[in-house]
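We both want to read discrete structure tokens more fluently, so let's practise on a single case. Would you write everything just below, so we can both look at the same thing?
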Amino acid sequence: MKKLLLTSNAAAKEVLQILQDEIVVKLKSVGKSDDAWMVVQTQNHDAEDSLLKWGEHLGVKSILQIAFFQGAGRGMVASESIGVGEIALEIPESLIISDELLCQSEVFLALKDFNSITSETMLLLWSMRERYNLASKFKPYFDTLPANFNTGLSFGIDGLAALEGTLLFDEIMQAKQHLRQQYDELFPLLCTNFPEIFRKDVCTWDNFLWACELWYSNSMMVVLSSGKLSTCLVPVAGLLNHSVSPHILNYGRVDEATKSLKFPLSRPCDAGEQCFLSYGKHPGSHLVTFYGFLPRGDNPYDVIPLDLDTSADDEDGTAQSVTTSQTTHMVRGTWLSRSGGFPTYGLPQPLLSHLRAALGCDIDESTTEADIKENDKVVLETILSIFNPMLEALPEQDDSHREGASWDVKLSLDYKDLQRKIISSIVTSCTSALENF
């Protein structure tokens, strides 16, 4: 828009200026609800201040400050108003923790030819050790990291019990099992073969899980100046919180000219306002498992996965000729749909098309209005037969279940509330549509 304003004639400039002003107003209005519940807390953050000073000494440039928020922990606020396209944070590539840095470590030198251990696993092991290395270049960074990340991978028995019956329960159990198996394959083998590098008191299950949670919750995919796409830890930038309406969207490539990773804004951030970063297009289940939170606001990636069997028969129709396959449909809350009536009723078109075909309810030019209604009635009743049992399996919980509950139980209950909200919206949309027939 700015380029167009510079090259346009007077008449066009007037129109473009009005358009630009309106766009800025719209951008500023996005995500305001994120800050409404974010209450700044007064808290000692000497370690975080030391991290910023350390970063600035090594070339970090920032117009953000660290703040603590009730219910969200640490975050970063704009120290001055920042416009679209302006750089809020700039991190030198030399401070980015990646497999290129790993190549200079004794962990890499010891393990590069050992049992085909991947660079990702080596980074976990490096982080687990570096946390306790008093001489580490990254000590100010590790000093700011929490003792516990409180992600779904750390859920206790009560937190998992509260999730029983949900797909998230299965996801977390599988992830925990995978990590435990990975740990058992590494230890005590590494302690035996490399006792000076991998001390038994450091290489515990709890420390290994901590390192895994660090990389899951804080890592970013970055294209380094070498052109290699790597999973990285980026000191200081890890303090930015996620939002469904983030200020920072595009930050995944090191600038070849400055050899730094820049974080430009995609929407304005006023002075004193919390600046949010996008962690990616993730559903709540992923954010709970690997980050330990559910975002405020409507997350368009929150879905109910619906696996439907499909079958294809050969012309002779014999049982031996039937082949089965499965298709998965992602169903969002119907309040996110732009259309609540015919022909979608707030439901995903691919799901409706699939069911219409499976139930023999296809619509063509010759289909009468009465037949269309009757066909859609069959489809909507089928959807209700799928989602009503889901809703019954998620009874509403009163607030007494949250009083005095541990963090993992509260997060589990919040997730179930979200699932109930989505399923309830689907049931309500189908019921309302049927009542109007």
User: Anything to note?
Assistant: Residues 407-435 form the longest helix (29 residues). Residues 97-233 form a domain with the set domain protein methyltransferase, domain 1 fold (CATH 3.90.1410.10). The longest strand covers residues 304-312. The radius of gyration is 26 Å.
